[in-house]
Amino acid sequence: MAVCDTNGSSSLTQVFDSLTPQQMRERGSLKWSQYPGDVIGAWVAEMDLGTAPAVEAAIHQAVHDGLLGYMPPSVSQATREETARYQREAFSWQVEAEHVSLLPDVLSSLSMIITSHTRAASAVIVPTPAYTPFLEIPGRNGRSCIEVPSATRWASDGSPRWELDLDGIESAMDAGAGLLVLCNPWNPVGRALTAAELDAVATLSSTYGVPVFADEIHAPLVLDAERTHIPYASRPGSDPDLTFTATAASKGWNIPGLKCAQLIASGRARARWEADAPSAHLRAEASVVGALATIAALRDGQDWLSEVRTYIRANRDALGEALAGAEGIEPTLPEATYLAWLDCRGLDLEQPARYFRKEVGVAMNEGTTYGRAWSGFCRLNLATGRSIEEETVHRITEAVRRRQGAS
């Protein structure tokens, strides 16, 4: 539970600040056990910050009650209702419970949409850099993947800003592609797409009759108060018949292992989903503990989430300050998600993540796993304790110094 002192400030910050690499290794998560030795786990997209007290309580209660079997209809219905309420209240998106289906995870719904809800043999469009499974799943389902590398422009503060290549997306649609994967907020570059960008995508989708799969799993993690998440399906130009939205509490409340995501669809997209037996059956594969945790997160986990966003924002800002003078590396600092995207091409490294792991023991993701065009980039996870983040940044800057000294 987030305990408050007499001045009203939360003790969560102190708890997070006290985390150490040794504690993380003893915890034994994939993030910290993949690479043995004195290596900081900063790669896979999970947080080191635990989860909300309400979620912990829901999990303990499920164990106490022995509610560890198959999904009861009452829990499924409550999860659907809570998902719809959260979308309406958090993002002003008018969702009804009957528009929500439960799933084990977001990726299972993408596979099903590709195989059952797009034209046979049609290609899948994936703007890059992109979450690695989005590039792999089309091939696993017998489809080609059209990578559309995104463009960058320089914002007023001098930072890089990533934008969808709408012309490239349109060309792929015109050539007969059958689905667009839209990641918003955008992993790995940390963008929360604007209304204008979403409206442009909606126009292309309607013009060419191409469905959009909107992955909005990072929606709760918009870091700055002046920004907000805008669901693609909430835009007036998005066609309900061509829109599938996948979301979950797994990133915002750090429960990806509990296996309960939600697919939101209406109109003919909803009718097709329910009429397709394999699609509809996915609801039976969702976890009852995950559903109970989701209800608790959406209903009672907002204060914890707010503090976590503030904490991650401070880690982000510290990274930006530390790398401001690091020649050869240009960070994209997230406005949403807890992921930073590092342009290391100035260090003349094809595999910078490998270099940082071998040289100074910081494990990040290689840029080429997010698309063919992204050699020289890597992704850094910022959702960790302050002392761990400080050590991570120290090691990265030390590696940059060594590399510059050797060149």
UniProtKB/TrEMBL annotation:
Its EC number is 4.4.1.13. Keywords: Lyase, Pyridoxal phosphate. The keyword Lyase applies. The lineage of its organism: Bacteria, Bacillati, Actinomycetota, Actinomycetes, Actinomycetales. It comes from the Bacteria. The keyword Signal does not apply. Gene3D superfamilies: Aspartate Aminotransferase, domain 1, Type I PLP-dependent aspartate aminotransferase-like (Major domain). InterPro entries: Aminotransferase_I/II_large, Class-II_PLP-Dep_Aminotrans, PyrdxlP-dep_Trfase, PyrdxlP-dep_Trfase_major, PyrdxlP-dep_Trfase_small. Belongs to the class-II pyridoxal-phosphate-dependent aminotransferase family. MalY/PatB cystathionine beta-lyase subfamily. It holds the Pfam family Aminotran_1_2. Its cofactor is pyridoxal 5'-phosphate. Residues 51-386 form the Aminotransferase class I/classII large domain. It is an enzyme of class 4 (lyase). This is cysteine-S-conjugate beta-lyase.
